[in-house]
Amino acid sequence: MMILFPPPHNMTTRNRLCDYSSCRWITLPAQAGFELKEAARRIAATLSARFLVPPEVTAGKPGAGCELLRMERDLRLPPEGYRLETSPDGAQLAAATDTGFYYGLLSFQQLLQIPARVPGVLIEDAPDISRRGYMLDVSRCKVPTMASLKAMIDSLSLLRCNELQLYMEHSFAFAGDERVWYDSSPLSPAEIMELDQYCRARFIELVPNLNSFGHLERWLKLEEYRHLAESPEPWYFAENDTRYQATLAPGREALAFIDRLYAEFLPNFTSPFLNVGCDETVELGHGRSRELCEQYGTHRVYLKYLAGLTELAAGYGRQVQFWGDIILHEPELIPEIPAGVTALLWGYEADHPFQEQCGQFRRAGIPFYVCPGTSTWNSITGRTANMLANIASAARCGSCFGARGFLLTDWGDGGHHQYWPLSWPGIAAAAGWSWNAAAELEAQIPYAVDFAFNPGGDGTLGSCLLEYGRIPEAFAHPGVNCNNFWAILNRPERRGNQTLLQQATRQEVAAALRKLAVWRRRVETHPPKAPRLVLDELDNSSLLAQLALESMAARKGRRLDRAAWNDRLRHVIGRHRDLWLARNRAGGLRESLGVLERFLLR
Description:
This protein has helices at 34-47, 98-111, 146-158, 178-181, 189-200, 217-220, 252-265, 290-296, 298-315, 354-364, 384-401, 424-435, 445-453, 460-468, 484-489, 495-503, 506-525, 532-555, 562-583, 589-597; strands at residues 10-19, 25-27, 56-58, 67-73, 82-87, 90-95, 117-125, 131-137, 163-167, 205-207, 235-237, 242-244, 273-275, 319-323, 342-346, 368-371, 405-410. By secondary structure, the chain is α/β, with parallel strands linked by helices. Strands 10-9-8-17-16-15-14-13 form an 8-stranded parallel sheet. Helix 3 (146-158) runs parallel beside helix 5, helix 7 runs parallel beside helix 9 and helix 13 (445-453) packs across helix 14. The longest helix has 24 residues, at 532-555.
């Protein structure tokens, strides 16, 4: 059986090998759009080295030469579905839409792994979830370069993702608000428009994402915006031992402020959607809106503000998406969500109750996405077992309950110290399960990592990344939304981190150190086939993980040479600076380095 990714729903193989080495033409369907023509030309270019005569794309019927692939419209097929059949007489691809043709072309490209030879197959396929997206946090320190963003979009397109969101709080270059974004290397309007066009050419929709209620601390800490804050002074939230001054006080002033941002931000996107955020508004009802919330109820006040955002967005021709965590505190109010609004149900642990939450929104008739995570933030190594279970559960529950979409989240909490390759297995898993929720994927993820992110690889990189994320499994209490490695690096004095570090035994720390040493030795003696940058990122990440474990071991009584340990951490910090700049802009780097520098032993 050929390995295809994402795995098709129906694939029949025949005992024959079709030799297409002398074939030349890829014939487009009638009325092919610009995006499909461009995609076909890109795919033909990647196949050129495998043929005697480089394939060419034509919109007309070739007068001479054999057809490599003929595309014909079949309006009976699902919108993103396709039917691909290969035979000695050539390959035939049917689809109803240009998107379906593109996904069929990607499958055909994967079949051509042996130069110009293709197994005889019949594939009939369509996705389980219609909108399959990825969201990258570009507000927590790390803003990728344009080259990095375009490479990411290319990879997402190969995996048939059709939605991309860049999570923003302050990292857009709003005119006149330089004090908010001056040290973050923000994306400019021209860059957003360029990315929007680049995405469209790859059958991806770039959905604007601007938090419009909570998580606005970089705005509200400034004197000129402090009057908009729910809490005039930072408010202590005992549940996670943190002080907040990040939520707008709901009302006309807040909506007028957001409207000004929308007027500048939204016209740079062509998508009809807008993610307004509105998650984790923890101060709501504890400050300026206290009396209002006491009179009407906190969650009704929340819904009224959401309705105001919905009205603003409609004025710009946008339909609203919002994070569904707050309204789930009073699920009886779910039916009162404004009409046309889509809820984003996020949860990042293996046991997150996606089934219960999907049922609540489906019964209320509210469209929703399921939103798991890559499990890479607050971890250093990633959390493989949690990632696989979290993503699979979200996709299967979403498919079962009719989710409108699937959005994989990749946050940058705590300084965004995870390197980009650590997210690749999660992105591949999300792409596979959101396309085919019932598939058994884990064995195919290394192949998918190479197909989309590491062309020419032999599968060892994906396996290496998955194994690296299993090292935290040495601990019986691996943490929630983090792991033990990060607990000691990022505010170990916090109550939750203290508990996690106290639960870790000396034997568990020693076992994790052994697992990490075995992993590092394997990577050094048999490095995966990958670019030097990727290998350097894995090396520096594992050195940081080792330092964290050694610090944990010292807490359990093991002797630590503080001077030598500090020297090694300084070396890691220096390499972190260089590796950051290889993929990302300089903005936010100082903040990320500061987190590691605070860990130096005094």
